[in-house]
Amino acid sequence: MVCVASLCSLPAFADDAISEADFPVVVESSESTEGSEPIGKNESAWWLSSHEKVSKTIGSWSSNIDSFLSGKQRVYNSESNLQIRFGSVFGGSERSSFFDFRTQLKLPNTQDRLSLVVESEPDTLAPESLRGESSQETTVVNSALKTTISAAVRYIKQDIGMDVDAGVRVDFPLDPFLRLRFKQGDVIGQWNWWQKQEMFAYYSKGVGARYGLGTGYAVTPQFNYGADVGVTWLDKEGLFYARENFFMQHLLNEKNRMAYQLSFLQSGEHSVQPDSFLYNIQYERLIYKDWLIGQIKPQFTHEAEDDYDGTFSLTLSLAILLGPKYLH
Q1: Nearest of 103, 130, 114, 152 to residue 24 by alpha carbon
Q2: Residue 32 counted as domain residue
Q3: 8 A C-beta contact, residue 135 and residue 143
């Protein structure tokens, strides 16, 4: 059985429910997917051995940090992981590249649901304003080198749906931040709903708040659809950003899935005005086992400032998932 880690088409990874439209699709398999291996069975290939070494290192680091801070020996299988996504965006005669990653080191012995999170930071604090990938450069290497990294200690209190991040953006000068999130949701038959509130404060970027609300309906275990709305307020810019997403997801089989999305974007100082609308299709395939994923996303974007004249783009990307749970 294939489980879905997150929804659609914007940049970065997520460990939230499939209803979130803030992040790209990432398909993870809860079973062995030997049939998704490429032709050729050279198990000593450098990329396979590299994946194994890095995955073991992530587990070892998180276990050692947890043992050092708690004084307890490891008695569990590490759930720490590293997620990497990179690729290129083609539009007209132009081409750009992007690189995103997220590392989560879970420390269950140190304190219940405590983890260290190191990840690439998007260029904006308002995900509602994003049309495509968050940080694009001429090449993947340039994007990786110019990526802003944040490191935070995250505490998750599941009984009240709260998580708190206290950390720093690795920039010049260093930019400390604090993020507080609350999340509620429920599943009622084939329906599910979710609600999120967030407050954040950055030393250099100022303070802000975000609210999101959405619902979804599972027609079958392989097909679902839904909608969500999000609003972000940024004090330093004095602007509101709003976005409405309508989506469908179709699990074709245990290796392939499709996602369809239509989004409307607005912004404004006192009242929001239309900025653009976009629609895309995203195809995903498990290329190797449950940790190497190929993604293809054609998209049309219509900007208000261009009289809603459509612009086509094509995003090709790879996602790599590393950690002890991806070792078979």
Answers
A1: 130
A2: no
A3: yes
Helix (H, G, I), strand (E, B) or coil at 128: helix
- List per-residue pLDDT tens for the chain, 328 residues long: 334 333 333 333 333 333 333 334 444 444 444 445 544 555 558 888 888 888 888 877 777 777 766 666 665 667 788 899 999 999 877 889 998 888 877 776 665 567 778 888 777 888 888 888 877 777 777 777 777 888 888 888 878 888 899 999 887 778 899 999 999 999 999 999 999 999 999 988 899 999 999 999 999 999 999 999 999 999 999 999 999 999 999 999 999 999 999 999 999 998 899 999 999 999 999 998 889 999 999 999 999 999 999 999 999 999 999 988 888 7
Count other Cβ atoms within 10 Å, centred on residue 233.
Answer: 16
Tell whether 319 is covered by a domain. Answer: yes
**Is 35 part of any domain?**
no
Reference 223, options 33, 65, 18, 55; nearest CA is: 18
Q: Which domain holds residue 127?
A: 2-27+42-326
How many domains does the chain fold into?
1
Closest C-alpha among 311, 303, 243, 307 to residue 276:
303
Q: What is the pTM of this model?
A: 0.79
3-state secondary structure 251-288: ECCCCEEEEEEEEEEEEECCCCEEEEEEEEEEEEEEEE
Cα distance between residue 120 and residue 230, in whole Å: 22
Residue 37 domain flag: no
Ramachandran angles phi, psi of 198, nearest 5°: -145, 140
Q: What is the CATH number of the domain that holds 53?
A: 2.40.160.40
